[in-house]
Amino acid sequence: MKVRKRAGVGLALIAAIAMLGIVAAGCGGGSSTTDASTDASSENSAAPSGEGQELTIGYSNPLASEEGLRSVGYGEKQAIKELGLNWNVKETDAKLSPEKQVSDLESFVTQNVAGITSWTLEEGAAEGAYREAKSAGIPIIGLNSNSPSFTSTIAGDTDMSCHVADQQAEYIAKLVPNAEVVMIGGPPVPSITLTTNCFSKAAKANGLKVIESQNDMDSNAEGGQKVASAMLLKHPDVQAMWVFAETTALGASAAAKAAGKEIWSGEDGSGLVLITRNGTAPGAAAIKSGDLTATWDNNQPLLGAAAIQLLKYHLVDGVPLSDLPKKVRIKSKLWDQSNIDSYEPALSREVPLPLPEEFEKP
Amino acid sequence: MLAVLRTSFGRIAGVTIGLLLVCLYLVITEPSFLTWANWQNIIRSESVIAVLALGMTFVVLTGGIDLSVASLTAVNAVVLGMVIGGGMAWPLVIIVVLAAGLALGLANGILIGAGRIPFFVVTLGTLAIYQSVALLLSKTGETKSLIGVGSFESIGDLVNGSIGPIPTVLVLVVALYLLGAFVLVFTSFGRSVYAVGSNPEAARLGGINVRAVIVTVYAIMGVMAGAAALLQGGRLSAAAPTADPNLMLDVVAAVLIGGVAFTGGDGNLLGALVGVIFLGVIQNGLTLSDISPFWQGTISGLILIIAVAIGVLREHGWGVGGLVGRRLSVGPKMTGVANDRSGK
Predict the structure, then answer these.
(1) Which member of B36, B160, B238 has the closest CB to residue A28?
(2) Confidence category of residue A48, pLDDT binned at 50, 70, 90
């Protein structure tokens, strides 16, 4: 009987929460995201000058603990400083959850930020939130991801093209012509799938022989170590290893050394050619210590800086969104023994302005 | 009546007080916090966790935990993408996805209840198996966009729509919680859930079919995972085969914050719902505030511990002396519970 009474109270409280929601709906500020008064008409109109204005730019970071992704936000802040703007970057961390990223993007709309920069986790999943932001008149700059709602996309060579994969295959072929290669890819997200497929094709075109391809679904050093150990056991004489990301490559390097293999270092090296991409500080340290042959730097601070530059054109210079370039290419940089001494970590390097050579001011 | 109200509130007092304090702080510091648009965001983003927490409450009340909840949702999401892509009408899509969830939940339940394999082992195993199944079913492993596909528009409208200013997901979640609360308290099955969680041996001797109860709660969890996949798919306009890495922890945290005892037999759905709201508001507040992502974990963790501590202190007396005295006075009961658990 007591249990029933308690349940009755519980049911009443749940109903009360629902009622509170209804009351709050009635009393709410009325800034509903669905009936935003501004709309996509700002595509063709100039925004008010934001040079001296204190504006907030939202950066949706898919994983803040990842150095490369954090360096995008760093690049944005550096560019704001160098361009003399009174802007603030609000960075959110989706922690690899597409659901959280959507919620973060919706929060940006609620806060009426002046612009959004976003590295999309799941392109289909975030589309609804992007459309909402677009309909609220907020310009969205995509970082290494695509969406019909983006004003522009900043595309790094490493993630959105085959440029780096081509260079990597050429690099291996130059060191060891007709080498036997094993590949370690990652989780099946579009940018990783693209670069993995690109390298497969480039390897063939450069006379390399891909003898096995596996994925490190954990995308970390431990995962790389496990996958590489198994591959090296099966193919002890393999001459080159292509790895989709540096953290996995560091694990692969440890596995190679544990298997008694030397890592190729420098032009006149010998052993296993181990190449990857990202250009993080641990990757650079591994090249210096001879644990990695080469890596391709994503130049991610430049992605953030380019996004700020585009937003400035619209928010300060009054360039209509429709006149901004649809795509801006950020070139990658190769690091190996020949130039690694001049390496500067992404989170402390200077962001050169004006922006990349492919960037054309409208 | 007042005594009953006090008892029910006592369990979630700390979290409720903590929630009110966090809300007060955000109202003062973040102008957009109190807007209805922001609350709609909280409601929509927490709807998946709320539905899963409902199912998890049934499981935790029996003394178990379903670690496979995120993978279960991922499989159901892929099934959603497949059946929508196959041109099925939306009412059938809903039935098929819920049925898929039921089947997967039943598999967990049968292994745990009938097979007598520990829940931790079974759900840890199916966590990996269901994730693998989701990837296999999706073929490419990539997220499938559902925009413009088959009958998705109807499901998208249902999930993202509003009744007046009220999001339909809020109505759905509240309806499910009312139904769940009714089942838990006004039906013999609900009372059996509490009995099994308190002392399975005593429940068995009392004529309760313990195995059937355990199989059923995991089946309910499966159906809720199906419902969560529908909400998630509708909200994201996509079917993602990769399990959200934070989902299981969020769901379990909401249930435990809401005062549901992880040893089973104690707690209710109101507490779980307050736990979901608490987590949602903290997450939203951290996003609105300009706090470094590196600090966010520390802050949310501290708020959580303080909120639960307030409840513990309130229940045991506000002073250290009161807490010690209370602990001594409940000692024999705690021993009794420990004995009950060993009899499981």
Answers:
(1) B36
(2) low
Omega within 30 of 0 (cis) for the link into A356: no
Chain A residues closer than 8 Å to B235 by CB: 99, 102, 128
Where do the H-state alpha helices sit in chain A?
2-27, 67-82, 98-110, 123-135, 157-160, 163-175, 190-205, 221-234, 246-258, 281-288, 300-315
d(CA B52, CA B238): 19
Partner residue opposite A3 with nearest CB, options B135, B185, B244: B185
Measure in Å the smallest separation between the Cα of B100 and chain A Cα atoms: 22
Residues B268, A7: C-beta atoms closer than 8 Å:
yes
User: Cβ B284–A126 below 8 Å, yes or no?
Assistant: no
Residue for token digits 């360039």? Answer: A319
Q: A112: which DSSP letter?
A: T
Question: Which of B71, B199, B62 lies closest to B119, judged by CA?
Answer: B62
pLDDT surpassing 70 at residue B175: yes
Q: How far apart are CA B32 and CA B26, in angstroms?
A: 9
CA B306/CA B241 separation, integer angstroms: 36
Q: What is the pLDDT of residues A347-357, one digit of tens each?
A: 888 887 656 54
- Cα separation, A182 vs A276, in Å, equals 12
Of A9, A111, A127, the CB nearest to B4: A9
Phi-psi region of A96 (alpha: psi -120 to 50; beta: other; left: phi over 0): left
Sheet of A240-243: strand order equals: A209-215, A180-185, A240-243, A273-278, A294-297, A333-336
State how far the Cα of B2 lies from the Cα of A360, in Å rounded to an integer. 71
Could you give the 3-state DSSP secondary structure of residue B215? helix
pTM above 0.80, yes or no: no
Q: Give which of B69, B131, B159, B236 to mutate to test A binding, by max A Cβ within 10 Å.
A: B236
List the beta bridge partners of residue A142: A118, A153
Q: Could you give the ipTM of this predicted complex? A: 0.71
